[in-house]
Amino acid sequence: MARIKAALRGPVTEICQDIMPQLRAYTRREAYEQIMANPELTARCFVEFRRRPELFQPVLLGPDARPVANDDQPLSCGRTLTQVISLIVRAVAKRYFRARLNVGRRPPPAAAKRPSLYQVVFGVFRPPPPPPKPAPKEPARGDLLFQAFRDFLQFEWQLALMPHYVRLSPTLVRALGARILEFRSADQIRDLAEHGTATESTAPGVPVTVAAEPSPPAPLVPRPEMRPAAPVEGGKPGPTVLHQVNGGLVLHLATELGLSKQQLVVCFMRAHEILPKQEFARFVASGPTDQDVARLVAAARKAGLNATSNLTDCGEFVTRFFFRLPM
Q1: pTM here?
Q2: pLDDT along the chain (327 residues), means of 10
Q3: Residue 64 domain boundaries
Q4: Chain Cα centroid distance, residue 121
Q5: How many domains does one find in the chain?
């Protein structure tokens, strides 16, 4: 972590200052603080990073001191770029949620009690009373919201949604779990905040519910009702992504690997994000062959993917599997 922070505060910030005029008036330390305190500015930095990756190559070196080829290849610090992005998104969210929601929480100082005459006269012969125990501190709303979101803050596209995320209640975010990743527009987040519902392309205003627990295993055969739905406007995955997943595949992975609903959601969302549309339809929506499933399960077991794996590991496994990277 120390190496990552040093790189972000140092050369990464300097590169951003060189290519972003709005940062040049600040010292390097001030520019870093500006970037981390403003999700919109952080998002612009990512846009420049994706647009001109060659400028960042000096800090994107692997253990062999050569530039990494993709987001999931280990860096010299031992983390992947995917993991570093998750760390940045969480750090920005934590600052932003606290700045927006943890306001006016400092309680007024307690009024000092005036001692009685008896206490004044005889107090000198007694030891001073122990200091009062501080009252237990209630977590601030910004901290509660961050804790509810923490495992699901993973992608750079979420930075643009943070001004809308602050409208959600921690209870709703906890109830949604990994399904929060399905909602990728400001309008959908607004609907969640106002009505506890989110607009889908095929069924507006569907109530938010947590998916049912997996049923007993079913044969891995294509199910017509699970074939891909119409693409979401703008080409971005929305709440219909999970409706495209073959039910038999879901049940098989839940049974063979013991993966939870949230872990499965992250796996399928990452597959949708990285796979070409035709490959996603073939492997995930219509139903893979038994050989494909056996290869997927074997790779997952080799990588140690199970019910105890965190959500970042689930997403990284999917990327490594489909890009045929070493586990």
Answers
A1: 0.59
A2: 91 95 94 95 94 92 91 90 93 95 64 60 60 72 93 93 93 87 90 70 35 33 31 42 73 80 85 82 74 84 87 86 69
A3: 2-101
A4: 62
A5: 2
